[in-house]
Amino acid sequence: MIKSMTGYGRATAQSAQWKVTVETKSVNNRFLDVVVKMPKQYNPLEDNVKKEISAVLHRGHVEAYITVEEIGESKQKIVADTDLAIAYCHAVQEIAAATGIPYQLNISEIASYYGVLTAQKEESDLDELWLTMSDAVKGSLHQLYEMRVAEGAILAKDLRSRLSKLADMKEEIAVRSPLVVADYREKLTGRIQEVLKEVEIDQDKLLNEVAFFADKADIAEELTRLGSHFEQFQANLAKDEAVGRKLDFILQEINREINTIGSKANDAQISHLVIEAKGELEKIREQVQNFE
């Protein structure tokens, strides 16, 4: 079933130690672009979140907002960045030497500098957190996915209606097309008689001119290809996969055939139908930009 790229989902999962809430939002984008926002101490789990999302969604800009509440006993360790601490010491000594101001280093003060001591979650603790976070991510994605499916169904219904209008216009053009040559012959004969008056018309030259026009104005191939493109579009609307890009390509081909018909037909009625068709086609193209 075809899906929209717009959706929203929210879910909460809880275990003995963790409570995790995940909100996911998605909007249109040419490719799949995932942004995860959560407390930085849990960043090692970001790739896991992105893998969960990419397993379900194929296109769209997706933002995942994750809040984590630790309700069990904390499992943290304090990690010292000794290289950073040494760098701070050297920097302070350089300042003292440059200014001539004596300075006595204090280990407690050095330890308080930003980044020297950090609290980090133990690896096993993050593994336990991921079990809870994964449930919340999946629950949120399920809601978002269902919303995308529901909106996709509404958009697909609208597109089928518009494509039906295009098909009707194509049939009107197909009915009108054979009459264009007859009208041209009648008008050409009338103009020649008006200019030459009593002079007899050279029927062979007239037939050659009409034949040349008929060949130039022939749009049978374009109409056949147009019908084929309509069928391909309908078939892709029924597929249970990401078809947004393919539909966009088919629309380009439909537009090319309609433009060719407009330039070759040389007929006011067909030109009017072409203008209507291009207007309807533009509405379809706008809708297709919403499809995954």
Write a concise keyword list for the protein shown above.
292 residues, 4-stranded mixed sheet, two-stranded antiparallel sheet, 15% strand
Fold topology:
Layout: E1 7-14, E2 18-27, E3 32-37, H1 46-54, E4 60-70, E5 76-80, H2 82-99, H3 107-112, E6 117-121, H4 123-196, H5 203-217, H6 220-237, H7 244-265, H8 268-288
Helix pairs in contact: 1-4, 4-5, 4-6, 4-8, 6-7, 7-8
Q: What does this molecule look like?
A:
This protein has 292 residues and is an alpha+beta fold. It contains eight helices and six strands, in the order E-E-E-H-E-E-H-H-E-H-H-H-H-H. Strand 1 and strand 2 form a beta hairpin. Helix 4 runs antiparallel to helix 5, helix 4 packs antiparallel against helix 8 and helix 7 packs antiparallel against helix 8.
